[in-house]
Design goal:
homodimer; globular; DNA-binding
Amino acid sequence: MHVKEVSELAGVSIRTLHHYDEIGLLTPKKINGSGYRIYSEADLERLQQILFFKELGFSLKKIKEIMNSSSYKQEEALEIQRGMLIDKRKRIDKMIQTIDKTIQNKKGEIQMTDKEKFEGFDFSHNPYEDEARKKWGDHVVDESNAKIKQLSKYERESLEKEFNDIYRKLAEIRHESPDSDIAQEKIGLWYVYLNKIGNYSLDAFKGLGQMYVDDERFTKNIDKFGEGLAKFMRDAMAVYAERNQSE
Amino acid sequence: MHVKEVSELAGVSIRTLHHYDEIGLLTPKKINGSGYRIYSEADLERLQQILFFKELGFSLKKIKEIMNSSSYKQEEALEIQRGMLIDKRKRIDKMIQTIDKTIQNKKGEIQMTDKEKFEGFDFSHNPYEDEARKKWGDHVVDESNAKIKQLSKYERESLEKEFNDIYRKLAEIRHESPDSDIAQEKIGLWYVYLNKIGNYSLDAFKGLGQMYVDDERFTKNIDKFGEGLAKFMRDAMAVYAERNQSE
DNA sequence: ATAAGGTATTACGTTACGTTAGAGTCAACT
DNA sequence: AGTTGACTCTAACGTAACGTAATACCTTAT
């Protein structure tokens, strides 16, 4: 499917689709040879998810964070979104009640406190973000931490040592090209390491790399080992994922 | 009431209130002597209205346009907003249905077309703006036009002559101060003129003046008589309204 | 009179696109 | 084969609705 088709189907502008591509929120496979974006069925589903989250007031950054979380599963998300939408409907009902009261109040039929005049809306913060955070927030870290806690003391120390070794090695070579042999070898170790404590597909691996630069909590910790390491790792991870994907 | 109080009551940030003041959407009477914004009960009601429109997806510019329309009445607005909110609830119900279908589809229980996957959302345009336009849009002009049409040919020509005369006079003196005697005299004629074809309170008069510079359709036509005339008129009209208000 | 909390005014930053502008693509029609 | 019209791309600047300091004044409680 081409942009226009998708655009009309989903009721969003073409520019919006371009934008989502730009920020890496929804990147179709642009095979067309002449650079045209071609959207697959899976892309459509992802777009649907994005729009649900958007309706619920999430920022694109948060949406990306959530959907890139290694534990993200569409079916789970649908259930949660369903709950949130029902909640939102409740809030709208409240607003309708508030209107009714206000009308009555205007007619002098009832009294109304100032507080009651604003029941139903609260623009000060997104009421659904907390729930989302519980489910997906900081999940990559949580998941890893949980697994690590289950290990024996010896295993933990051994893992930590390995962790530090890989980071230091990567930091040393961070000025090489991300697709160089040495970089790919070391980033491969990283992939193996991660799969000891979690379960990462190549796509998730690539997504995680992107998060290293998008999410400053990661960037900060990673760049402790060397300025610019996060970016280097993201690039290397992307290359690694793509190379091993096709084979 | 001070900003913080209002802010907490309505669930909007202080910055938002400042912003609404800046753009002239909600300007409290700042009597406090030290420049503090003091919000009245009427201001609260206006804020409530604003938030309702916002929830329905109107831009602040549109909201301002609507609420400054000479025919705007709060009670009417409440009824219409009520209808729109009920409509919005329907759309959310559609989205919930869409989610349910998607879940079933994922389980392989039912088939689903691409179109069905996006039923409920349509971000391409605000569905309520048309309705609003019918009620309030271009209303100042419409109202005047309607009245003018009812007049005899002679009366119409006479009015048009008067109209042109006033504009030309105003254009001549547009470099005077808006609160000078001559400016106030001529703008007074304009107020009298407008009330021949409509029914303008001093507040509506002031609001109309603001619209001369906010709405470029007005600005363009007015500035035909002289560059900067629209701004001059707005200022003069504001002074006129305030001076005659208190007496 | 001094600290704590509220408020005001700049003023620059940010998000999520809108809006041209300039140029290449594709399918259909003469 | 040439042209047209609908579609696509990237690049880049514009906009709306605030967020986020920074700096300074006001007010009241101690």
